[in-house]
Design a protein that fits this description.
By secondary structure, the chain is mostly helical. Helices cover 64% and strands 0% of the residues.
Length: 185
């Protein structure tokens, strides 16, 4: 399968350049995923908009990153698991909890574990978590409308996870320390 080119800001279509500049400012570099998405400006803009909108939800930064990594784990996306391992560390989640997520172990924080479980359920069962998963999510202190906010992160990660699968995105040098392989591989 042919890989997509990893565009720089200079080589990208004009319609992608402004979005790329903004993401470079945010991350300090242009991630390979963004360079690949640049080939399709509308897709790049959709991904960037959903990512920005997740920040407007009622989830805190750790919860946002947890939604993103849980979706990536459910979709078996090596690139995004690495990226959001870095994001969780920057957001302040303890390394042992980042490791637990990456290894598929239960999180010590019951509220975050409920968020992890509902995210996996939404992704794995195409938006159909069972009653026990919904009850656990709500009993842990989340509100019903937050199940809808969760979809913003799932949608953003679905775009990036699928792009990485299609493109076989190479991991950026900046993320190599966070590389991940599925335990079932």
């Amino acid at each position: 399968m042919p890989r997509f080119p990893v565009h720089s800001i200079e080589s990208a279509p004009e319609a992608s350049r402004e979005t790329m500049r903004g993401l470079k400012q945010k991350f300090g570099f242009v991630p390979n995923l963004i360079g690949e998405l640049a080939a399709a400006p509308a897709t790049l803009k959709a991904y960037a908009a959903l990512s920005r909108l997740l920040e407007e939800t009622t989830f805190d930064p750790v919860e946002q990153q947890l939604i993103l990594i849980a979706t990536s784990l459910a979709n078996d996306c090596r690139y995004c698991v690495a990226a959001h391992s870095a994001g969780l560390k920057m957001a302040g989640l303890a390394q042992d909890q980042v490791d637990a997520l990456r290894e598929g172990r239960v999180l010590a924080d019951g509220r975050l574990e409920a968020l992890r479980k509902i995210t996996f359920a939404v992704v794995d069962r195409r938006g159909r978590p069972n009653a026990a998963e919904v009850r656990s999510f709500l009993e842990s202190g989340y509100r019903p409308e937050q199940m809808l906010e969760l979809l913003v992160g799932v949608a953003a990660k679905t775009i990036s996870n699928y792009t990485n699968h299609l493109a076989e995105t190479p991991l950026d040098r900046e993320l190599e320390v966070f590389s991940w392989k599925p335990t079932t591989a």
